[in-house]
Automatic annotation (TrEMBL), chain A:
Belongs to the binding-protein-dependent transport system permease family. CysTW subfamily. It is a multi-pass membrane protein. It comes from the Bacteria. It comes from Seinonella peptonophila. It is found in: Cell membrane. One of its GO terms (biological process) is transmembrane transport. This is Putative spermidine/putrescine transport system permease protein/spermidine/putrescine transport system permease protein. The chain crosses the membrane at residues 7-28, 63-85, 94-117, 137-161, 244-266. CDD domains: TM_PBP2. The keyword Protein biosynthesis does not apply. The lineage of its organism: Bacteria, Bacillati, Bacillota, Bacilli, Bacillales.
Automatic annotation (TrEMBL), chain B:
GO terms for molecular function: ABC-type quaternary ammonium compound transporting activity; ATP binding; ATP hydrolysis activity. The complex is composed of two ATP-binding proteins (OpuCA), two transmembrane proteins (OpuCB and OpuCD) and a solute-binding protein (OpuCC). It is an enzyme of class 7 (translocase). Its EC number is 7.6.2.9. InterPro entries: AAA+_ATPase, ABC_SmlMolc_Importer, ABC_transporter-like_ATP-bd, ABC_transporter-like_CS, Mo/tungstate-bd_C_term_dom, P-loop_NTPase, Transp-assoc_OB_typ2. It comes from Seinonella peptonophila. PANTHER family: SPERMIDINE/PUTRESCINE IMPORT ATP-BINDING PROTEIN POTA, SPERMIDINE_PUTRESCINE IMPORT ATP-BINDING PROTEIN POTA. This is Carnitine transport ATP-binding protein OpuCA.
Amino acid sequence: MNRMTRLYTGMGFIAILYLFCFFLYPLLKVFYTSLWINDQFTFDNYIKILTTSIYTQVLMKTLSVAVISTVIALGLGYLMAYFIVTRRPERQGIWLLIVVSSMFMSLTVRLYGWLIILGENSPILKALTSLFGKIQLLFSEKAIVVGIVHFILPFVTLTIYTSLKKIEPSLLEASNMLGASPLRTFWRITFPLSLPGIYAGGSIAFALSASTFLVPIMLGGGPKNYLIANIAYDLIVTVGNLDMGAALSFVLFVMVILILSIFNLLERRGQHAPRKMD
Amino acid sequence: MARSNSKIEIAISLDSIVKEYQGERVIDQVGFQLQEGEFLSLLGPSGSGKTTILRIVAGLVKPDSGSIILKGKNIEHIPPHLRNMGMVFQQYALFPHLTVYENVAYGLKARRLEKKVMKERVSKYLELVDLLPFAKRKPKELSGGQQQRVSLARALATEPILLLFDEPLSNLDARLKEQMLHEIHTLHRTLGFTAIYVTHDQNEALYLSDKIAVLNHGKIEQFASPEKILQHPKTPFVADFFGYVNRLEDAILQDNNTATVGQINVPIGHQGINSLAGKKGQLFIRPNAIQVAEYQQTLVKDKGNLPAVVLDARYRGGETEVQIQLVNEAVNLTAVIPKMIVPSPKQGEQISIVFDSSGICFFPGDDSDE
């Protein structure tokens, strides 16, 4: 083993140790906590979560908000990424910087911005109201979706941009030369080849959306629109029901892992069996 | 393809094509005509504009001015996907998410061919390039040579009016290159397609082409058959490109058959335009036009032989390349003996040489120089 390999092995070991101490151990601890009520081992918390309508409703709400946000972010992100990747190469950096620049500021500050934009006195909302009739966005599920999309859009745009950038321009020319129109070329070549970026971006977006904590508090208008992370926080910090809070957190974790596995499966299938062309 | 004597069909003609990039003229008044079934090579060093011309023909680059007529139809405003041309790329450009079969079928699907016809067509062309058993593979499961053959089949399968090649062999190793060269030539002979082939390799151009356009700085220096270009290079640039590696300055043309360099008479086989007796200019000599009498199989006459000294000798593909210096005149030359000389001629060895006029050209210098 030469020195470099030893160095890398050492660094890898540190990473694994770090993950174990600060991720795996706390996770197991959460799971362990959720299974003990008054010194008794029981699955009662999980049964309660899956049978009580308050909890199932919050679960469904979280799931739907996360899915809707992810889908919207993927759509918007794809358009933005496609726009950037079709600019002149020397200009692309500036566009990417603009996309990423929103991340330079704290999410709290940015959400205050949305409070103003979506608020009653906002000129933007007034303009929209005059066009489409009265719109109430703030303190609703829709406002939460708006906030989450704003938060996850840069991640999605960057991952999709990367996958689009990897596509050889000569492939598009080859498609063109074989008689495929630009639109056909997009659906048969560009889109299938950018799927890895969509899966990766979708995974990140869903994980971030489902576990969002700040957005429901600031744009959701209080407990009526709380999502899982908020309920878990309240249970632990306000109510002091540690085991129930732990159980709810673990359910959220499992939910995210399940969805990510589906994305993963889709991606692998895409690699082995090609999409049917007609 | 049977070429009848009565009617020669023009497949494509370009006229005064101009293209500028940021004020620099990369294509300068290029025009040529290509007959149906002909194989044309665009040959030139990098930056000579050969690829740009190909891309203009393909429609991937818009010319600033000039016209392109394809089978009697002006195609300047027709987008690439409606031009019915095929293209083989340097980097193969196979679709990585599709199988070999789907790659070859791609152009046929875009043309909405009937399924049965399509299947036959794909099989036919995969068979032609010997890749039918690989139909279900993905491109990355094939070798470079196989990938380029798929790309060839893909371009051929749409049976295009014109086939374009963009340096298709430059990514292949020497042996594979030879095989592909042979394969492309055979396909051209059997299928009779019209082709434009971009390359910087004179050997590829000579092997494949009916016509060669030699390009330099966006201009066509010479447009002619391989034989013509080899025997009668039109400009010093063409001569240089086609292996006239010895260049002697300050030559003076005596008559149609002779030029002198210092005290030496050199027989010439060809002279450039504006050559007049008494004019100063350059002599271009192919290495194989300098015969070394001592190593010649057939007897070379002693009369007129020039004494020379060997400076260095190297082997090159079964031949022996010898650097020599003439005894009577301070002139260094590269000569080739068309066989391996073992042991190779030694430094300082006394030899004598004879010029073969068929590989020697005279080009007059600019008048302003005199």
